[in-house]
Amino acid sequence: MSNRTELSKFKFQGGFETWAWFFMRISGVVLLLIAVFHLLLMHVYIQVENITYDVVANRWTGAWGPFWRTYDVALLIFALTHGFNGLRWVVDDYIHRAGWNVFFKALLLVIYLTVIAMGAYTVFSFTG
Amino acid sequence: MGHVISAFWKGITYKGGPGHYAFILHRLTGIGVALFLILHILDNFIIMFGEEAFAEVLNLYANPVMRLLEVFLIFSVIYHAFNGLRVIIVDFWAPSSHVQRTLWILVWIVVIPLSLIAAWFTLAPIFGLR
Predict the structure, then answer these.
(1) Is pLDDT above 60 for A5?
(2) Rounded distance, CA A99 to CA B59, Å?
(3) Are B45 and A122 a contacting pair at CB < 8 A?
(4) Best interface-test mutation with B: which of A6, A40, A42, A52 has the largest number of B CBs within 10 A?
(5) In this structure, is residue A4 part of a structural domain?
(6) What are the structural domains, with CATH classification, of chain B?
């Protein structure tokens, strides 16, 4: 029996975990485009030793500022949500004791919300 | 703690072949990139404290040890991206094991040259090259 026949027996029933699984695939493709482009732009094209305050300031306040701010916020939200859902799966895989499992997942949620707020604040309120 | 170690040990000693190694590397690179992401948002936040403060942060990344870690970061992002694409293709297409083997080889055909190019641009300045 091929894999295809076996997979076809499964029906999409929704629910949080199914959507989380689906989100990882969708955001994965988005990040393959925007995170890999960001990486090649900063590390290969611009190169890290050439990054200065002015490089970042010019990008956010120049003519293309609104585009780059939107790009960076999209990167922030997709990368963090993808990354922290991944970490949540790691916690579920290795930390089975209920109390610690909940503790680490709550900790992840707090860190996730804090850094997303800090990142969004930086991107939106930077004036140069 | 012993429980966590045993769960982790079972996870890495299960003899699953290429798919298993792909999974271990996917997980390690994912955790690494996620941890860097937290650091990266904190370093970028410092730009709000002005030009001098941000220059000091950027200076930390200029350290040769950090440049070496940067190579690991670049490899991690590229591997995670292209192995992730392989996972998506396998999930939705469910190809034969023969095709799955080809996909695994294709991942490395893309990941190795891209990582080497990025590593050259990252490490060459340390050695006074380029």
Answers:
(1) no
(2) 41
(3) yes
(4) A40
(5) no
(6) 17-127 (1.20.1300.10)
Q: Establish if B77 touches chain A: CB-CB under 8 angstroms.
A: yes
Nearest-neighbour CA in chain A from B26: distance (Å): 10
C-alpha span between A51 and B97 (Å, rounded)? 45
Among A36, A47, A51, the residue with its CB nearest the CB of B58 is A51
Two tokens, residue A44:
């290969």
Using a CB-CB cut-off of 8 Å, the residues of chain A touching B87 are 28
**Confidence at B49, pLDDT banded by 50, 70, 90:** very high
Q: What is the CATH classification number for the domain harbouring A117? A: 1.20.1300
Residue A124 corresponds to which tokens in the numbers above?
């939106």
User: With 80 as the cut, is the pLDDT of residue B66 above it?
Assistant: yes
Q: Which residues of A touch B38 (CB under 8 A)?
A: 111, 115
Domain count along chain A: 1
Place of tokens 């080809």: B102
Q: How many other β-carbons are positioned within 10 Å of the β-carbon of residue A109?
A: 12
Per-chain mean pLDDT for chain B: 91
The predicted-structure confidence for B76-99, as pLDDT tens digits, reads as follows 999 999 999 999 999 998 888 899
Instruction: Please answer yes or no on whether B118 and A40 come within 8 Å at the CB atom.
Output: yes
